[in-house]
Write a structure and sequence with these properties.
It is built from 3 helices and 13 strands. It is α+β, with helices and mostly antiparallel strands and about 220 residues long. The structure holds calcium ion.
Length: about 220
Amino acid sequence: MFRSTVSVATLVTAAMVLGLVPPADVVTAEEMCVVGWTIESNTPGSIPATYCAAGVTDIPLSRGPGISPRPDVGALYISRGWSYTSDDLDPEDYYQWGFLSDKPLDLLHIGVSARGDHVHGPTTRRLYASFNGEDFVYVGRPTTTSARFSLDLSEYTDVSSAAFRLYAYNADSAQGNLSITNELSTPEYARAIQVFATPEPATISMLALGGLAVLRGRRRR
Ligand SMILES: [Ca+2]
């Protein structure tokens, strides 16, 4: 198994050195999108991911039992019923999404676009996650009031499954809403939700080793 992987990698690298094939994206990419959601319309149900990397299965975007869909049209996944009587989160008020992966992944960061109703919507957002089926842990909270935020996930490595929950509270009334929505201004936010990981480090190091072997072999001749 190991030997055949190296020889394939060496052949590929040899072909690249000789200019026969262009370098694959995986060699140069610094990050890969694992799973992502583009919101096409509002629905009272759940929304499957619109992008999954190879070997990745989504856990659909859905609502916790403490929030309810708000009738609306457009590319919004919109809900009301966020906690407004307490200064703390309600454990049932959240959006949830996630993924399962054939191969363990080293996560990098997550980008989310969650737009609140500025008058009545929840003003505090907190992201929690369950990795590899463990208990939910606090990941972080956006330091910006804008809809888009990004949180570092680089401490979470060897992740084969992840479920994320975005809790929100400090709403002004039960009618205040918060929606998951597309923010298409930058590549990082090309989708409403995107999880990023490092691209298969084993493949890169194999190719690098194969490349060194080829260069050494050529120099000796
Ligand atoms: Ca609620």
